[in-house]
Amino acid sequence: MLIKSVKPSLLLYSETKFKTHMLRKIVTILFITFLFAGQIAFSQNVIFPEVVLKNVPTDIQVHSETEIDYLILNKDTLQLNKAGDKYVMNVTLENDNIQFENTAIEYEKPLVIPGWLSLLPPLIAIILALIFKEVLSSLFIGIFIGAATIGFYGGGISGIFAAFFTVLDHYILDALLDPGHASVILFSVIIGSIVAIISKNGGMQGVVNRLIKYATNRKSGMLTAYFLGLAIFFDDYANTLVVGNTMRPITDRLKISREKLAYIVDSTAAPIAAIAFITTWIGAELTYITDGISKIEMQQGVVITESAYGIFINSLAYSFYPIFTLFFVFFLLYKQRDFGPMYKAEIKTLKEGNTADTVTNRELEEFNPVKNAKIKAYNAIIPIFIVISGTFLGLLVTGISASNSFLLENGIDLSNGTWAAIGTEGGDQVGFFRKLGIVIGNADSYVALLWSSMAGLAAAIVMTVSQRIMSLKEAMDAMIVGINTMMPAVVILILAWSLAGVTESLSTAEYLKAFFGSDFSHVWVIPALTFVLSAFIAFSTGSSWSTMALMYPLVIPLSFAVAAGDPNFSEMAILYNTIASVLAGSVLGDHCSPISDTTILSSLATSCDHIQHVRTQMPYALSVGAVALFIGVIPTAFGVPSLVAFGVGILVLYLIVHFVGKKV
C-alpha cells in the first residue's frame, strides 16, 4: 500500500478554504437568525372578526410589538388608535380582497357578506315568536339561520347542512361553557330550590299569616295583598302563586272582586322582581349587561370600569314603568277608586259577591305546605335574609379583594389598610358612600350571588330537616321541584345566549350602527323605541324573558354607539335609560298579554276568569305605560333629571286616579 505525500502548501490552502466556507455559513446563519428575530420583534397581527360586512365600517384589532401609527390596506392608509395593549383601526371592505402593503402582517381572512344578512337571525326569531307565540323554537331557528349563513359563505351548500350541528356543538356549547353563564344557571336553579323548600315547609305561609291579620275591611284587605306582593320580591312566580292563592278566601269574604285581586297580584309580582336587587331575574340581567359591555369595549375601543351590577343599579333611575305601576296600584287601593272595566267588576262583586269556582292546578299544589309543616315565618325569613345579606357581604369581600389588587398594581400605599386607600389614587380623600360604590363596582357579582344562594339553600334544608318538617329525601325532592320550575327560563337563557353569539359572529350591532349612521341626530328615540318595541314583543310572545333575550344583545351596543356620535348626549345616561327600557317594556307587554305566563298564573291563583283579568288590567297598564313613556323615558333621554320625571309622573298618576277614578 502506497501513501502519497501531500505538499504543505496544499494542506494550507485546503484549511483556509474550509475556514472561509465555515465563516460564510456562520454569517449566513446569523443573518437569517437576526432577520427572523427582527420579524418576530416587529411582527404585526391583525385580528379580523369571523365575519366582516360589506361596506360597513368595522373596528379591527391590531397587535404590534412596536409603536405604529397606521397600516396600508388595499392602498388605503388606515389610522390606528391605541386601546390598552392593542390598537384599533376602522376598516370598510367592498369585497373579500385583502392586501396589506406590508406582506409580513399576519391575519386570518374573514368571510365578507352583505350587511342585511346579519339582521336575519334576530329578525326571524322575533317574527316567528310573534306568529307562533312560542319562543324556544323561534330562538333555535334564529340561531340556525345565522349558522347557516356563515356555513354557506364558508363552505357552500354543505355548510348549510353542517350548520344544524353547529348550533349545538358551537353556539349552544359555547354559551354553556362561559363561566358567567354557568353562574347564572346555578344561581337561578338554587333560588328556585329555596323558593320551593320554604313554601313546602310552611315558612312562606307563616309570612302570609302574619300579614293577613291586618285585613279587616276592603281597603286593608287590598293593601295587605299589595304589601304581601312587595314582601315576596325575589321571584314573580312564587309571588303570584302564594299571594293569589292565600289572599283569595280573605278577599272573597271582604267582597273584593277576583279581577281586582288578580290585578294586585299581577301588578306587584313582575314590577317588584324587576327592580329588586336580589331576584331570580338579576342573574340573567347581569349576563346580558356584561355581554353588552364587552361588545361596546371591543367595538368602541373604550374601557368601562363600572361593573354590571353597578350599571344595573344606575339603570333603576330610569325604570319608570315598574316603579310607576307600584305607585299607581297603591293610589287605587288607598283612595278606593277605579275606572273602566275594573270599576264595573268591583260594583258587581259588591252587589253579588264572588261566585267563581276555585281553580286548582299542579303548580299550586306543588307549592302547598306539606302535611306536617310548621307554619313559622322564620323558616322563610332566615333563608331569604341569608341570601340578601350574604350577597351584600359577598360583594364587599370580592370588591375589596379586587380593589386591593388594583391598588397594589398602581403602587398605592396600603399601610393604613385597603379600605383607607380606596379612592385615593388621585390624592384626594373620598367619603364612605363613594368608597362603598367603588368597592361594589369592583366586586364579582356572580361569585357573591352563588355564595349567598348556596348558603341560603343550606339554611333552608337544615332548618326544614332539623325540625322534622320533612325528611332529607323529601327536602331534596322539593329542591328538584324548585329546579324544575326554573328550567323553562334556563332553556330560554341558553338559547338567547347562543343567539347573541350568532349576532356577534355576524356583526349585527355593527350593521345597526352603520344603518343609523354618524349623522343620526335623534338619540332620544333609542330608549323610547326600545320601550315600545319591548312592550310589543312581550305582548305578542307573553314572556318578559324572551323579550330581554331578543332585545338586550342588540340595543346595549347600539345605544352607546349612537350616543357616542352626538356630543349633546351622555353615552352612559342613554345606556342606563335603554337598559331600563328593555325591562320596563317587557313588564308592560307582559301585563297586557293574554298569553303571558304570569298573567295566566294570576288568573289561576285567584280563580279569576282569564279574559276578564286581561280586560280589567289592560287599561291600567296602558295608562301607566303612556305616563312612563312621555313623562319618564323621553324627557330623561333629553337630559331631564330622573328625579324630576319621577315626581311629575307620580303626580300625574295620582291625578288620574283622583279625577278619572270613581269611588267604589
Automatic annotation (TrEMBL):
It is a multi-pass membrane protein. Keywords: Cell membrane, Membrane, Transmembrane, Transmembrane helix. GO terms for cellular component: plasma membrane. This is Na+/H+ antiporter NhaC family protein. It comes from the Bacteria. It is found in: Cell membrane. Its main location: membrane. PANTHER family: NA+/H+ ANTIPORTER-RELATED (PTHR43478), NA+_H+ ANTIPORTER NHAC-LIKE C-TERMINAL DOMAIN-CONTAINING PROTEIN (PTHR43478:SF1).
